[in-house]
Amino acid sequence: MTGHVVLRAGAYSIRVARRPVAAALALVAAALVVGFVALCFGASWSHPMEVLAALAGRGDSVVVIRDWRLPRVAAALVFGAALGLAGAIFQNLTRNALGSPDVIGLDAGSYTGALVAITVLSSTPAQLAVSSAAGGLAAAAAVYFLSLRSGLSGMRLIVIGIAVNAMLTAVNSWIVLRAELEVAMAATGWSAGSLNGVDWAELALPFGVVGALALLLVALAPGMHQTGLGDDLAVASGVRLNPLRLLLVLAGVGCTATVTAVAGPIVFIALAAPQIGRLLAGTAGVALLPAALTGGVLLLTADLLAQVVFAPVALPVGVVTTVIGGGYLIWLLVRRAGRA
Q1: Residue 53 falls within a domain, yes or no?
Q2: Mean pLDDT by 10 residues, the chain (340 residues)
C-alpha cells in the first residue's frame, strides 16, 4: 500500500500523499458534524429531523434555522478558515510557530483601525473594513521596518511584533477610555470577538473578500512553500521574493482585517490552527488547506461552546478562543523551551 493516491479529473491527474487527503476529509467531516449540532442548538434545542426539514425549506423552523443559526455557522467556518490562512501565511514567512497575526500585532492593528471607524467615523461596514485593513497594514509595516535586520523571519521579528502588539493594545485602551460612554461600551463588547447576531446581509461582502483572497493564495502557494526551503533555493528556482512576500502580507492582513471588521478581534485561532493542521496532515511545512480547515473547525467548536457553557447566555466566542488558545500557547512555549 503506497503513501500516495492519484486524483483524476478528465485528462488531468495529480498525485498527492494519502495522509493530507485523509486529514482534509476528516476535518470536513468534523465541520459538518459540529455545524449540524450548532444548527440544532440555540435558545431551544431543535430535533435533527426538524433541522433537516428546515434546511429543505419545510416546517415551522425555517426562519430560525436558515436565517438565524445558519449564518452564524457559516460565519464561524469561513472566518475560522480565514484566520487559519492568515496564521499559515505569517508562520511560513517568519518560519516560526509564534509568527501569527495575533502575536505580532496585526490583530491589534486591525482593531485600532476599527476603533477609529467606531469612535470617529459613522462605523458603516465599508468604513470598518477599510479602517481595519489600514490598521493591520500599518502594524505590519511597523513590525517589518523595525525588524529589517531579519527581514520577515527570525525571532527578532516575533519579539518586535509582541512589543508592537503591547503598544497597540495600550493605544486601543486609551481610545476606548476617551470615547463617549455608549460608544466605549459598544467597542468594549465588540472587542471580545463575537458572532452573535450575524446575518446573511452583513456576510455577503466578507465572504466574497475571503473567497478572493483564498484564490490568490492558491496561486501563491507554490512560491510560498519554495521559500520555506530557503531564500537562496527559492530565488534559484525562479521565485521573486519581494513581490511574493508583499502579496502574502497583503493577503494575510486582508484575511485578519475582514474577520475583525465583522466579528471583532478573535485571537489564537490563527496561532493554533496552522500547527494543528500541520500535525494532522503530516506535512513538512505549514500547508494552507489543513490550516484553513482546522481554523474553521476550531472556531465553529469554540462558538458552539460559547453558546453551551453558560446557556441560555451566549458568551462572545473570543472569550472561549482566548482560554483555549492561552493553554495552547503555554504548551507551545514549554515544548519549544524543552527543545532548546
Answers
A1: no
A2: 59 69 91 93 81 84 86 95 93 82 85 86 79 88 79 73 90 86 78 84 90 93 78 72 84 89 87 89 83 94 88 82 81 67
| Alpha carbon separation from 19 to 32, 72, 206, 280, 313 (Å, rounded) | 20, 31, 32, 8, 40
Looking at the structure of the chain, the number of domains it has is 1
Residue 208's pLDDT is 93
CA distances from 232 to 224, 226, 227 (A): 13, 10, 8
What per-residue confidence (pLDDT) applies to 298? 94
Q: Which amino acid is at 108?
A: A
DSSP 6: E
Measured between alpha carbons, how far is 184 from 330 in angstroms, rounded to an integer?
31
Burial (0-12, 13-18, 19+ Cβ within 10 Å), 263: buried
Q: Give the range of the structural domain holding residue 229, as residue numbers without chain letter.
A: 82-290+301-339
Calpha distance 196→206 (Å, rounded): 16
pTM for the whole thing? 0.88
Q: How far apart are CA 145 and CA 160, in angstroms?
A: 10
Query: Does residue 266 form part of some domain?
Result: yes
Tell me, yes or no, whether 188 lies in a domain. Answer: yes
Q: What pLDDT is attached to residue 116? A: 87
> What gap in Å lies between CA 207 and CA 28, rounded to an integer?
18
Residue 107 covered by a domain:
yes
C-alpha cell at 263: 466579528
The pLDDT score that the predictor gives to residue 1 is: 41
Say which CATH number the domain at 236 has.
1.10.3470.10
